[in-house]
Write the structure tokens for this entry.
Amino acid sequence: MEEKDFRYPGPKPRTKEAAVVCICDSVEAAVRSMKKPTMDKIEDTVQSIIFDRLKDGQLDECPITFQELTKIKKAVCEMLQGTFHSRIEYPKSEGGQVIKEAK
């Protein structure tokens, strides 16, 4: 397989909104493929994807600024933190049933 096999064949983003969708689509796919996403891994992934899009020239036709990319990174990381945060494991009885909290 070659890199071109995984590339979107359409045009490069020409609006800020299209750039956000491009970044979020890539981030969502990358984070969902992680076995155990942590906030550090998620932040590194988001930063890496934004950098890769810039380096590859995929945002060259879009009027987005570095300041806006920083805001996008922060917003995406906050949203993903809420989605993929660690949850506590509820206590179970000896039979394997979840013990409900007394009200």
Remarks:
- The mean pLDDT is 85.
- The two ends are 57 Å apart (CA to CA).
- Helices lie at 16-32, 39-55, 66-84.
- DSSP finds three helices and no strands in the chain.
